[in-house]
Model the fold of this input.
Amino acid sequence: MVTASNSRASSFGRIVLYAVLGLFCIYYLLPLYVMLVNSLKPLSEITAGGMMSLPRDWTFAPWLSAWSSAQVGVEATGLRPYFLNSIVMVVPAVALSTLVGALNGYVLTKWTFRGSTIVFGLLLFGCFIPFQMVLIPMARMLGLMGLAGSVAGLVFVHFVYGIGFSTLYFRNYYAAFPTELVRAAQIDGAGFFRIFLRILLPSSGPIAVVCIIWQFTNIWNDFLFGASFSDFSSQPMTVALNNLVQSSTGVKEYNVHFAGAIMAALPTLFVYIVAGRYFVRGLMAGSVKG
Amino acid sequence: MSFSEKANPRGSVGDRLRDALPRLVLSPSVAIVAIFVYGFIFFTLYLSFTDSRILPSFGWVGWHNYDNLFRIRAWDTAVSNLVVFGVLYIAICCALGLLLAILLDQRIRAEGFIRTIYLYPMALSFIVTGVAWKWFLDPGIGIEAVVQGWGWTDFKFNWIKDREMAIYTIVIAAVWQTSGFVMAMFLAGLRGIDGEMMKAAQIDGASTFALYRRIVIPQLRPAFMSAFVVLAHMAIKSYDLVIALTGGGPGTATELPATFMYSYTFTRNQMGIGAASAVIMLMTIAAIIVPYLWSELREKK
Amino acid sequence: MGFLDIKQATKSYGSLKVLHETDISIEEGEFLVLVGPSGCGKSTLLNMIAGLEDITSGEIAVRGRSMNGVRPADRNIAMVFQSYALYPNMSVAGNISFGMEMHGIAKPERKKRIGQVSDLLQISHLLDRKPGQLSGGQRQRVAMGRALVREPDVFLFDEPLSNLDAKLRVDMRTEIKKLHQKLGTTIVYVTHDQIEALTLSTRIAVMFGGYVQQLGTPKEIYDNPANMFVAGFMGSPSMNLFPAKVVSVDGRPAAEMWLADGKSATVPFAAETLSSSVGRDIVLGIRPEAITDRDGADRNSAAVHMVEAPVEVTEPAGSDTFVVSQIGGKDVTGRFRADVNVRAGDVFPFAFNMEKAVAFDPQTENRIA
Done:
């Protein structure tokens, strides 16, 4: 698209272009920089107006405090137990919703029946509802199921509301999977599950990664369900971080807050850096259905 | 693709089971969604017409909760905040996203790297974003203090403490988090445009500006649609960011419907009114999402 | 009762009937080609034979056993797909053996049969590769191997050559024909390519609009098309179809045709069939190879008649030159010898071999003579 009409003008244009792009890089990186440098300096440097500067005294103490001794809510446990809660919550919820989504996607593309598009539409709409709409009945339901205030309850909630997106991913992926292969396998004598396990599943690697990353990011980052359905012992990381930051008692330890924020961000950030391509694909597939 | 639809009655139970298997596999999900999405929607809808307070109760009060809701000042604030926030958030995200996408589409070296930087906030929790911006915008220690420390002692930036301006800090943080995502959507749209058409336009003598204004941007309509739907639905559901950034304050200055619903239901024990506000949120989102899903799924056929 | 019987079979999707009552009966060892344009119902019929689609009404039977409601896997059929449908995650050997594995055939037997089939198709050196590493022709062979190894009652081919380039398509066509002659298997083959249909089949069913338009040997279909659709669809360049009128010349029926220069020509029919139809408007059908230059005309024909017509276009094609004139407002193509000196604008004698002419009713489009 760049016409090479006038090389001097265009090379000047390129410099401006890169400068603008660079400025935006600074804009996006600035909050991360602020979090990082301030998590490594003593509190006094921050309160003295040095938020933008590099630490003069490098210290790892805020990280240690955030991890194991900071006051979260009523107890001075640090964020560690809540980090573990999040992991215990995320792993089964992601696994379950991905597995169920894969099976749903398979049925909805390769074994369609009258009304299967409507069924899919109804499943999908479930991802977009404001979850405020389900908070009250879900709180009661978890109580009835004996899961109130437990990590297991959160696993269940995230599994339930994760089905829609998982199904979306696998459905769109399997829709592009040649139906002739399924027919060939039928003629060869393979049944419903055999076709899924032997023919489709071995080719589902990429979409499984996309789905797992999406679910992982979403569930790890969730706050609303965590805040609504957990008690002090089962809080996920995001809720604990918010409690740490909002606690009104004592001095505000900004450096500890920043360290905690980075801790809460690290797992998803790590996934993003390692598998960014799949992350972006998931984002796109979640918005532009096709 | 309906080759699995077996109209002919089959003899044995095994045959019939085999034919029903796909639907059996799907049915747990259908049941779960039927109960936990649609059943719950109806439950909350019902509650919004009852005198529920701290616990659900089933005394029918008709439209009473909705009447009350629209007389509550805080709801009024929440709705007008949502309008301000939603409009600015969507407009700025789209403008910024489009600009960045076009800039990145100029055969940029290290495009992948830059794109990674623009998009990473999307991987973060709104709580993390909220914490980062909360202290960065805090006049006591954040940008105001820093700039004053650099010598501009008159510099003031205390929006986050200002009832009038606080809602705009939500916009700032939300735009920071999502604009990279909108950029990625537009970039995908740009990459989908036929290169030969661009060449044809250049041969027709279109300047780069005219090329984008007349040829490229009109073709990004589907990307605009998707961006609008995603952003609008995120705006209406915005809860975490407000909680982390301002907690709805100062006072109720940054209250949004999502935070209103939560506080009325769970802290003020006005469950009926909370349910009514949730219903209104659902209606708003449905008005955007349902036509969108409808058209997307119809195209598929 | 034949080997494969299709009796009054229909297929509807809701109120849309895509296949009307169809009766076809083929013998063991026959090669039936279903040919027609896309949407004519040929693939639907094939899928119904395979059991991939249900039969709405009627019956399909193999060796007298009704297949209605029988699972594809239990029909003892094999199918070669347009995309080959090779399982991407399995090796060539895995692809060939999958069906036998599903049918519980023991491993030594599987190995033996894979060996036989891969020798037959000359793919032994490919057995360990994945489909992604094969060329189009090789994939085609593997897909056929997968079908052959099952030793089925009926082979079904769904446009198996349409993904190959032109040259390879011709080679594979020959290959399939050889294979059929060697093994004597029963084949039902779907294609939209009328040349494939003519070269491969022992019988052809020409389909259009959900109906079988004509069922017959390639020669019957080519020489005596049942209606104007079959006449126009089979053969390339396709049969000339133009309006004419039956008149009587010396008591014998003749065709009066209208040339582009305003003149008309009258050419006697070879047979008396139309003697009772004098005065009737018809559509005359005559293939390009039956309209030639004088010296190129069939010397064994007793009914070659000359028509002086203005030449509109000539299209040299190497071995022949196609010469186009207008008769009754339609382009009419003749197949001339390559070295005939003819130019656009000339008025030139065209030799019509009326032994090869057929006549259709303009309203019903069915053949009347």
In short: Residues 52 and 72 of chain B are 17 Å apart (CA to CA). The mean pLDDT of chain B is 86.
